[in-house]
Every structure is written in C-alpha cells, then in structure tokens.
Amino acid sequence: MADSTAPPVAPPSTVGDLALEVRSKNAGPFWVTMELFMRDADGYRIVADEAFLNERVIADLYRVDAGTIQVFRIPSLNVVKISFPRPVSQGSLRDRDMHAGQHHVPLAVLRVPATTPGVSRG
Amino acid sequence: MDNTPVDSVRIMTPVGMLGAGWDEATIERGLALGVDVITVDGGSTDSGPYYLGSATAKTTAKAVARDLRSLLRAAARAAAPLIIGSCGTSGTDSGVDWVAGMVTEIMAEDGLDLKVARIYSEQNPADLKEHLDAGRIHPLPPLGGIRAETLESCTHIVGMMGHEPIVEALAAGAQVVLAGRATDTAVAAAYPLMKGMSAGPSWHAAKIVECGGQCTVNPRAGGVHTTIDAGGFTIEPLDPGNACTPYTVAAHMLYETVNPFEMREPAGTLDVRAATYGAVDDRTVRVEGSRFHTADQHTVKLEGARVTGYETMSFTAVRDPLILADIESWADLLRAHLRRWVSQTLGLADDEYAFDLRLYGHNAVLDDLEFDTSPPREVGVMLLVNAPDQATATAVAKLANPLMLHLPTPEMHYLPSLAFASSPAEVERGPAYEFVLNHVVDSITPTGMFRIEHGDNNHHG
User: Fold this and answer.
1) Which superkingdom does the taxonomy of this entry point to (chain A) (predicted)?
2) CB contacts < 8 A (A, B)
3) Which among A74, A83, A92 has CB closest to B434?
4) pLDDT tens digits, residue range B235-246?
5) Closest by alpha carbon to B57, among B38, B84, B75, B39?
6) CATH class belonging to B304-435
7) Cα separation, B131 vs B137, whole angstroms
8) Model's pTM, two decimal places?
9) Binding-site residues on chain B for chain A (CB distance < 8 A)
C-alpha cells in the first residue's frame, strides 16, 4: 500500500501510536482497569510480549505492588487488559481522577522497542 | 406475571443509565421489533461515594421523569414488564422512593395503571453484625476483614441483589419493578431466567446490554435489542443506522471489569471463555457458548459509605512565568506556610486536618506519575481542605487565602497578585465520603436481605 511518492512513514514510537485506543477506568470503587486496543496483530504481538510489558513494568509505571497486578492477553481482540487495586481510594481527599479515566496516559506513552521483529512498516 | 417457559425472550435496553435520555424513535424501533421486557440501570458507584453516603441521586429529577414517562408508555403498549435497577444512583431506600414517587405521578397524568413493586436493599448494621459474628461476611480483595464499628460508621449500606428478588416481584404480578441496589446484570437477566432461559446466555446478554449502546459502534446512538433463546443470544442496536459487530460486543466484556473472562454474580459466575461472537449481518451479532457456574454459596455484596470529614475548596490561578518557572517550589512554600499558620492560629496539629494542593495544568491529574517536565503556560491552584467540621475546613482555607493571593517565590522582592476564580474564593463542599465496604455476605436465602413491597405508594405510607 506504500506510495513511492509519499514521504517515509515515521516508525511508531509509543504503545499509543500502535493502538486504536488506550483507556483506563474504575472497575468498582477499589480497582482500576486499563485496556490497550491494538490496531492489528503486529501491534498486539508487541504489547502482548511478556518481555516488553509485564507486571514489573506496570508496577514501576504506576508505583503499585507487582503482586497485585493482573494482566490479561486476548489475541482474538488484539487487546491487553491490566487491572490492579486503585492506589488512591475513590473520592478521597487525594483522589484527583474520580473515574480513573485519565490514568492510561503513562501506559500509552510507553516507548516500544526500537527494533521489533515482525512489525511491518510498509 | 406468567412464568410459563417460552422459546425466546426479547429485551429492550434503551440506555445505560436512567436519566441519560434517548431519541424516542429508538423506542418505537424496539417496540416494532417486539419486546417482552424493558430493562434499564438507574445507578452506579462510578461517580464516587457521595451518592451512596448522602443517599442523593446523580441524575436530575426532570431527566429521570422524562425517561420514565417514555418507558412506562412503552411498557403499557407492549404489555411488557419494566425493570429498573439501582434506583436513585446508589439504590438506597430513598432512591427507590424517589423513583416510585415519579412513577405514581406520571401514571396518574398519563392514565396508566401498571402494578408497581418496590424492592428495598438497604441493610441494617445490627442485622449485618449478626452475619459478621456468625462468620458470614468475607472481604473481597484488596480489602481486609471488617469490625462492627466499620458497619456502624456507615451513613448508608446497601446489598446488591441478584435476579431472585426481581423474579419474586414479577411472579407476584408486578409490571413495573423498581429495585434498590442490584447488580447491573441482574436487572436484564431476571426476566429471561424466570421464563426458563439458560443461565449462560441470560447473564452474558445482561452484561452486554447493561450499558445500552456501549456495545455498538456508536454508543451515543441509543440502546440495544437482544433476543435470548436456548442456544445463545442475538443483539442489534435500536437505531437502524447503528451497528453491533463481533468486536464491539466481545469488547464490552472488558468494560469496567477486573477480569474479562468471568464475572461473579450472587448466584454464581458467568464464564465467557468459550463464547463465540459471529456476525448475523452487518449490524447484528450472535453469541453462543456462554456458561454460568452456579456457586455452592450464594453471596450478596455490600456497599457502604461513611463521612471522612467536611471539605472546603478554594481555587486561584497563576499566569506569571516567573512563578511558573518553578511552580513546585512555590507550592511547597505555600504548603509550609499554611501548616505553620494553621498551627499558630488554629492550634491544629498536622494530623487534625488535611489538605491537598493541586496544580492543574502542571501535574494535578497524575501527581507524582506525571512525566512531562515542560513548563506550563498557566496553572490552576486548587486547595481542598478536609477537617472534622465545616467551620474548621473553611478556617484553614481562609488562612490560605492571602497565600493563594500574594505568595511570592523566594526570588521575588515584591508581592504578586494571583488570579482567584471567584468571590468568595472558598466553596464549602459539605460532608465528604469514602467507600469502606467491599465485602460479601453468605446469604441464607437469595431474597432474605431484600424487602419487596407492592403498590406505588411510598413504603412507610
């Protein structure tokens, strides 16, 4: 599909670049859940790769206990879903995101590995 | 209500939340497709603990009344029961009465005479203490066990009903069921289960329709129509221009759930691991293979909220680049000054009140997770104070007022004047609440914790 006259396409740099949508939301008052809806199977392979995205990475990104994080990989939807206990109690004095709807951003800006085998960039 | 088994059950769900509204043409479309039951959710915990703690609704009365009128008329025309769950946002007893009062009024105005049942789900701490003492209350992660004092500290506690109390109300002849707190899914699963549909398709369909059009390609185009039969369920949007696709329907299992493959209900667990999603045409989806595993122990989940204190908010804004260049240091300085002034003036120790200073435009939303270090163009400074009483919270906010107006950076040899958003600057927010329960009761019977009353008059009348 590449047009020879088109400028070269910049390689995707973040998880969000490869996704249709990255979102976060409360799953009840005590949990937060996030989903990476990837554009295609290639993007899914990158984020589903345990060497790239795993409980440890999420724990560092959100400063939560890795042992409480649940990761679900759903190839039929090209989705990776991540759930963990809400670090700040919903509605408490220090809760700045009542619906936890803006906490996907640190995940969305995660840089994908520079050279990823199997990713078509045509 | 006749509970003779049938071959299929058709459900119309006009929207994800009563009071959110819809295009009346979508209801006409649903009625033309044929409707055996109309279901809609009236609540959620998603907007925070205030609505349960204070037993007030998030939605405004006129919007709820508009939606009720449309659905009561549709239910009468289709001779189909109308089931509304989690009335009044949090499903407290007053929330049920609030909706019941509107139903009475609308039926009188429109000459309708439908039989109404109200199901109350508020829980008495004394009854719950008996369950606690008997070892029948268990925490769900991430919370731990509770003590009796926690139950007593709640302003309101509700139990989340499953389908059973709703079925009981329908079986007794109710045409309109106004339920207190119910699982989002029980509202739509009750009628098909009563009519003998399999549990797997009934619960799975109920989960998919609970947010109305959220499972379609255009969630803002109205609700959905689903038909449950022996082998599965078929779903399409009410708006002919909208579409369900296998992707949008399957993806809805992810929405606001911790686990996308299974979901615990009071009576057991929905399991969609083996479910298949196929396109019937370009806007209709067929789902098969959903399973439901009945639990050995029926459980009822509790929700409770209590007052954490009283809050006062104040809001100013900074545009001066000299302050914005190091807004963190300026905010630290403000915090330190405020703590000292509160100690000197009000005699309060740091643990006798609390405040949160948020720098909107800088890092308010993500706080210490914020990764962008570029200087902001302008910053909204919100001070939120929590204290044991309103007067103290406001006193702290008023002590902060001169700082939020004139605090210079250490480099400034003059007093800047910052941009307050309103006069007075302080806004008293009243009591603040927190959720404290995430526990289940091993229920002795599926209906025992809920009270069903027939008739549309308020339950104490």
Assistant:
1) Bacteria
2) 102
3) A92
4) 999 999 999 999
5) B84
6) alpha beta
7) 6
8) 0.94
9) 45-50, 140-143, 247, 250-251, 254-261, 303, 308, 311, 354-356, 358, 364-369, 371, 384, 386, 432-435, 438
**Chain A residue numbers touching B250 (CB-CB < 8 A):** 76-77
Asked if pLDDT for residue B38 goes beyond 60, the answer is yes
List the one residue out of B132, B172, B162, B165 whose CA is nearest residue B149. B132
Q: Are B326 and B400 in contact (CB under 8 A)?
A: no
Query: What value does the mean pLDDT take over residues B44-49?
Result: 94
- A84: nearest CA partner in chain B: B258
Report d(CA B207, CA B37) in Å as an integer: 16
Question: Average pLDDT by consecutive 10-residue portion of chain A (122 residues)?
Answer: 56 91 96 98 97 98 98 97 96 96 98 67 39
User: What residues in B contact A34, CB-CB < 8 Å?
Assistant: none
Burial (0-12, 13-18, 19+ Cβ within 10 Å), B66: middle
What per-residue confidence (pLDDT) applies to B23? 97
Backbone angles phi, psi at B120, to 5 degrees: -95, 140
- For residue B6, with 0-12 CB atoms within 10 Å meaning exposed, 13-18 middle and 19 or more buried, which class applies? middle
Half-sphere exposure of B158 (CA within 13 A, CB side): 34
CA distance B387 to B389: 5
- What's the longest Cα–Cα distance across chain A? 56
Local structure of residue B172 (DSSP, 8 states): T
Residue of B281, B74, B63, B256 whose CA lies nearest to A25: B256
CB B256 within 8 A of CB A26: yes
A37 touches chain B (CB under 8 A): yes
Contacts for B336 with CB less than 8 Å, ≥ 6 apart: none
Contact A91/B48, CB-based, under 8 Å? yes
Give 3-state DSSP helix, strand, coil % of chain B, rounded to 5: 35, 30, 40
Instruction: Give every CB contact of residue B48 below 8 A, 6+ residues apart in sequence.
Output: A90, A91, A98, B433
Instruction: Please give the radius of gyration of chain A, using alpha carbons only, rounded to the nearest integer.
Output: 16
Domain boundaries, chain B: 8-121+161-298+446-454, 304-435
Q: Please say whether the dihedral angle defined by the alpha carbons of residues A103, A109, A115 and A119, taken in this order, is positive or negative.
A: positive
What is the DSSP code string of A64-76?
--GGG-EEEEEGG
Provide, as residue numbers in chain B, all residues whose Cβ is less than 8 Å from the Cβ of A77.
247, 250-251, 254
B-chain residues within 8 Å CB-CB of A102?
Answer: 365-366
Can you tell me the distance from the alpha carbon of A83 to that of B180, in angstroms, rounded to the nearest whole number?
28
Collect all residues of chain B within an 8 Å Cβ-Cβ radius of residue A37: 251
How many CA atoms lie within 13 Å of B313's alpha carbon, on the beta-carbon side?
13
DSSP B157: E
Judged by a CB distance cut-off of 8 A, whether residue A66 touches chain B is no
Neighbouring CB atoms inside 10 A of B62's CB total 10
